[in-house]
Amino acid sequence: MWYRRAASALVRPSLKQLLSVALMVGCSAVPLGDRPLTALEQVQAQGRLEIISRNGPTTYYEGKNGLTGLEYTLAKAFADELGVELRIHEEESLGKLIDRVATPTLRIGAASLTVTPARSEKVRFTTPYQTVNQQLLYRAGTERPASIEDLIGKELVVIANSSHTELLAELKATHPALQWRVVADAEMVDLVEMVHRGTIEHAVVDSNALDLNRNLFPKARVAFNVSEAQALAWAFSKQVDGSLFQAAEQFFQRIQSDGTLAQAKDRFYGHVDDMNYTDALVFASRLETRLPRWEEYLKQAAAKYDIEWNLLAAISYQESHWNPTARSYTGVRGLMMLTKATAKELGVTNRVDPRQSIDGGARYYKKIFDRIPTDIQGKDRTWLALAAYNVGFGHMEDARVLTERMGGDPDHWEDVAKHLPLLAKRKYYRQAKHGYARGWEAVSYVQNIRNFYNVLAWHDQLKVRRMAANEENDTPAHFSPVSYSANKGESISLL
Question: Whole-model pTM?
C-alpha cells in the first residue's frame, strides 16, 4: 500500500538542496562523470524517500489532518531535509519487513524496530532514537507472575517474528519448559486489550505500546520487565553504499542536539501519565456506557465551531464525567459545567440540557481559543486555550508574562505550565495584573484533558481499524492467530 501526504515540515530544505535535486532529476539519474549515483543521490534524483512500516499507534496512523505518529513525523522530517517526498510501504509481518530491507534496496525500515543481534546480522541500524523495555502483562485480579518460572504451564502470547520471540527463544535455553504462542497480523495494542478483557492470560509487549494504551485498557498490568532497556532504530540494507545511512545518522544527531527529537517524542508520549487505577477503570467503562449518548451532540458542536470532537469530549469528561445533571459546590452545572454568568453570556437558557450545554461550552472554548495570539499555533495554542478556559484568560496571560520575565518561552505551553503555579505565591501574584490564581489546578486540568484526549483519539482509531477488518474479513476477529511450537518452529492455523 502506498501513502502520500503533504504535511508541515519540521525542517525545510535549503535552496542549495532544491537546486541539487532539480539538477539530478534533470539528469534522470545518469551517472555523474564516470561514477554511478550514490544511494543518497539516487533518492534525491528520484524525488522520494521510501520507508517500510507497520500501521499502528507507535509508528504511523491516519489522524484528523492526515498521517501522524512518531515514525511518520521523523521520516517526514528526514524526507523534508533531503528535499524529497515521503512514501510509505506497509508490511504487517516484521520478519518480511526486515527481509525486504535487507535486500539491495533504498527503502528504510521505520517501524519501532528493536535492535537485536539476529536482526543486526541482516541489516544495519542507525543511532537509536528511543529505548523500550519488553514487559510481561497479566490481568488485574489474577495472580501476578514474579519470574519466568511462574509462566511455565501458563498461556503466553507474543507477535510473530518480533524481538519478543527472539528473547523468549534465548530464555528457553535456561527454561526448557517455557512455551508460548505467536499471533500474526496483530498489533501490540491487540494483545494489551486481550489481556485487559481476559481473552488471554499473558503477553509480552514493548513499554511504549503499553504506555499509549494503559489508560484505555487499565486491567492489563505489568508483572515485570522481561528485558533490559532496548534500542529502537531505523534499519538500512547492508548491500548498498552507506551514503543514505550516513545522511540519516547526521539527521538523528542534529535532531537530538537541537531538541527536535525530544519535542516529537513529547508530542506522542508527553501525555502518558498513569491515571489512578480506579479512575482509569471508570473512564474505560464510561467510554462504553455514557459517551455514546452524547457523541452526536459533541460531533455537531465540534463541526460547528471547528474543534476536534475528541477534544470537546475530553473537556466534557474532565468537567462532568459526561453527567448531564452534574453540579459542583460552586454552583456550575451540566455536561460542560457552565456558570450562570457564562450561560447567560452564551444564551444558554437551561444548563442541564445536554445539547445546550455542549454547544455553549464549545462556543466558549472557541472564543478563548481565538483570543490566543495568532503566532501561537498547533498544540501549544490548544493547551494555552484550555488553561485559560480553566483559570481565566487574564491569569493565563499573567503566566505568559511571568514566563517571559523568567527566561522561558511564553508561546510554549510546557514553559508556561512551569510558571502558572507561581501565581499562587504572593511574591509573584502581587506583581501580576490579575493577582492570585490557583495556577496548579490549570496545569492539572490541561494534563488530564491531554490524557483523555489521546485515549479518545486512539479509541477512535481502534474502532476504524476493526470496522475495516470486519468488512474485509466478514468476521469480528481482531487478527488471524497462528500457533507456534517453540521446539519445532511449525505453524498451524487455529481457526
Answer: 0.62
